[in-house]
Design brief:
Blueprint (H helix, E strand, L loop, with lengths): L17 E4 L1 E3 L4 H6 L7 H25 L4 E4 L1 H6 L1 H9 L3 E4 L12 H19 L5 E2 L10 H7 L4 E2 L9 E5 L2 E7 L9 H4 L4 H5 L4 H18 L2 E4 L4 H4 L2 H16 L2 E4 L1 H12 L12
Parallel strand pairs: 1-9, 1-10, 2-3, 3-4, 5-6, 6-8
Antiparallel strand pairs: 7-8
Helix pairs in contact: 2-11, 9-11
The structure holds zinc ion.
The site of zinc ion (ZN) has 5 residues, from loops.
């Protein structure tokens, strides 16, 4: 897949040095039913997931308000069904809600039909509960097939956040031609799950203090801001980062990024901005029938 070169050198608004997408995965209980032991009666684990929408999310919203930042929340349809009030509130407060599976299907789908059915179901939940049609795709397990980009594009999506190969956005291609559909790569470095998740033994052993985790993210931020024209897409989970000590350190980090050239955007806003910056796209021929 040679669609990531040359790297985009983005001109961010107001001459800012680096684009910052604050993105939260509201996996909630699904993280434990899909990635954990799958035992829905294991109330200790399940309620760890519930902590996200029930306790962490309201605190995160308050923190984002204090910084006057709009963020992106990737919400599985099932999570929206279980916690409709707080998920609707995300949209009401002007945050973006993106696709993140129906029940956080980690392994992807067995066929295109099955994947479309999952997307239909999840999108309907988000429409019915929060009144939004998602335009951004973050796969729960980051699984993408040959047809995925074309399928997302045809479904009206304008970006995906699944790759990990470059430090900034790029336009996907169909038959070698760029299309108005972006990739916002992420990395484990910017994922609180790799510092703070207690899902399995190795992760438990690697649990870091928030200052240690943010120190590593800050080093990357400083490096990319110095290069210029780059972007970071974060992966925070309300059930992990919504604890007060961690959130306080994250809030300080946001203050630091603001003071050092960060341009904060919702992911859909960043996609629209970059599509507009690009100018006209050449006509393309689709590769797949549907
Ligand atoms: Zn997730």
């Amino acid at each position: 897949m040679n669609n990531t070169w040359p790297r985009m050198q983005v001109k961010w608004p107001d001459n800012k040095k680096i684009g910052i997408l604050m993105a939260f995965d509201v996996d909630a209980e699904c993280l434990w039913t899909q990635r954990g032991d799958g035992n829905r009666d294991h109330i200790t684990n399940i309620s760890r997931g519930t902590y996200g929408p029930k306790t962490g999310l309201p605190r995160i919203l308050k923190m984002l308000d204090a910084h006057n930042i709009k963020a992106t929340f990737y919400v599985p349809g099932w999570t929206a069904e279980q916690h409709p009030k707080i998920i609707k509130e995300l949209a009401d407060r002007g945050h973006e809600i993106g696709f993140h599976g129906y029940e956080h299907e980690e392994k992807g789908a067995n066929s295109r039909e099955e994947e479309e059915a999952i997307m239909d179901r999840a999108e309907k939940c988000l429409r019915d509960i929060a009144g939004v049609q998602p335009v951004g795709h973050r796969g729960p397990g980051g699984v993408m097939y040959d047809y995925s980009v074309e399928m997302f594009y045809k479904r009206g999506y304008i970006y995906s956040s699944n790759h990990r190969d470059v430090d900034g956005p790029f336009f996907h291609r169909i038959n070698g031609k760029e299309i108005p559909f972006l990739e916002f790569p992420k990395d484990s470095l910017y994922d609180d799950g790799f510092y703070m998740c207690t899902l399995s033994e190795p992760m438990r052993e690697s649990m870091k203090s928030p200052r240690e985790a943010i120190k590593m993210m800050k080093a990357e931020f400083d490096g990319l801001a110095e290069e210029g024209g780059r972007m970071i897409t974060f992966v925070f989970h309300p059930q992990l980062s919504g604890h007060p000590g961690r959130l306080r350190v994250l809030s300080e980090f946001i203050g630091y990024m603001k003071a050092h050239g960060a341009c904060f955007m919702r992911s859909d806003e960043a996609a629209r901005y970059l599509i507009e910056q690009h100018g006209p796209f050449e006509p393309i021929e689709f590769q797949f029938d549907k």
